């Protein structure tokens, strides 16, 4: 092997003597020198920004009400509104008088930031009626002299948030400030240190690596190494090499390995430099970043294998560079076409939320559509059209009874929760061939529907939770009902509100509409990150909001009747304050007397559903981000969907000889990969797994065996994608997807969360193995052809 190592060593010496290599070295050192002054510091989250508002319209209406409603002027919202700048107060009064006034969020944010300095608006007696989080209670108990300026501003911000529930997004209590040479950047990130490290590892570092290593260094590497094979084929050089007892194939492979020396030397310096900058300046010691070195060399070898074959065939460095450039263009075009098919053809058909009724399966889609599976024709029938450019949003459908489902279509609601135009609850009945019929008017900006037992439906909007009855819905849709309407008092409440001079402000704040009544206790609001789990019988629900778990019981339930003064509203019977930042997202589910909670970066927590007392935890690998969870109807098991695209069971561990439980465990993946959503049908005890865009597997939860597989017929464009585009992407190596492999290695995650709005979070899974396999096969094929050509030709 010594001759071959000598050839590799000569290639390293040749690379070190290249002027281009030293130019690249200098450029890398200058880049690292430019990045080295970057630093960070941590401080409390104080100032408001435009993106801190979850519902700016609600805020505008609340401030206007505080100015024009005499009953609100002495309340916290009235005191805050009175402290606003004069010009803004004048505009808010016009809003309260019914005028259409556009006020930018940045103007509201600037006005609130002024209140952080001058806190004369605060009155302790007025704020006793507000719902205060644990952080605010602790700060209120701190003596004035013990508060720093930053803490004082933080307390003022929390008081403003408490006075306007349902207005603000949940933010971490501490924020990271980027610095450069000791000077603060003009804007902070409003994320805590853990989230900051995730942002750097999952976005910033992979982006730098992709651009510098995936484009610049590969282009320079091909320029430098294109002459290695043609130079080797020169008569004097080749005869000298072949005079030794060496194999032609191994000689060519040795030259190929040696040709990777240029990129290896450059990549090693750049990656090690970024690793040290991230560690020394940002305190992010991420050893996974070092995986970029072999992956980047592997990416270069894909292009260099083409350059090697071209150099053997034409013995010209210029032609080798030209052929490699053409190959890179082909890879780029194929990747772009594949991305277009993914975004415009496949993604819109991806099933999002499923529900069954009358033996039919319905699902909302990522393309803003609603589909029903036609078993006779084995295809998805569009009730609302799915389209990549669709700006509408479909509220997840809910089964009202065996023959009826309800949903809503928010016009223009893809990026705006309020949408445009009136928002009606839509009733789809089997007897009407599932044609949508308008029913009761939904509360403004409704984003989610929940079935609450057999006789009522809950609607969640930007900050409130409201309820209507089944009979109200059917009457409004022109259907006959078999019994007296148990919710006949609800329209009366709404009518009284409609006659009020504050009705428009109430509508702007997402208040009740005809047929709906609020269920949350007075002063409580639910803002993202939030999650709701409703008891299947509709007796209670559990809300996760702003770092708290709250159990609410229905007034007519045995527990709910114990509360006083909560007529028409559900009563809070238990709560639990969660550890960690209140801004963490999570998923919850109820099964029997057990509540499951899964938040990012935390183990799965299981609680007693009645008292919210912690029961046990289930440790999960770091890469398993919780996407969804449903109970399986047996009082103990959950189906848990994770970010890697698999469904797993959360189940009790078999007890010991005395029958005592040993806690819970997470099972190995069950069913197919690339699972998009899960749903459970309690009536038939069936578990539905939607996967690979629009395929569905239906399992019996008793034995977890597949009962039915839905493999619908493909549309023309989907057929073209499967039969033409997918084979092309398989044959042509997708070098661009290796960037996702790098991002997964650096971040340690198999997927990334992308949100179009606070209620539409989509998990985009990294393609980790596919590009590695396709590129590996391509390298082997190209080198095999090159070795055969080199061995059978007389040079």
UniProtKB/TrEMBL annotation:
Question: Quick one: a GO cellular component term?
Answer: plasma membrane
| Transmembrane annotation, as ranges | 20-40, 203-229, 249-277, 289-312, 318-341, 772-791
Taxonomic source organism: Rubripirellula lacrimiformis
Question: Which InterPro entries does UniProt cross-reference here?
Answer: Quinoprotein_ADH-like_sf
One GO term in the molecular function aspect is:
ABC-type transporter activity
Q: What is the lineage of its organism?
A: Bacteria, Pseudomonadati, Planctomycetota, Planctomycetia, Pirellulales
What keyword terms does UniProt attach to this protein? Answer: Membrane, Transmembrane, Transmembrane helix
The protein's name: ABC-2 family transporter protein
By its UniProt entry, which Pfam families does this protein fall under?
Answer: ABC2_membrane_2
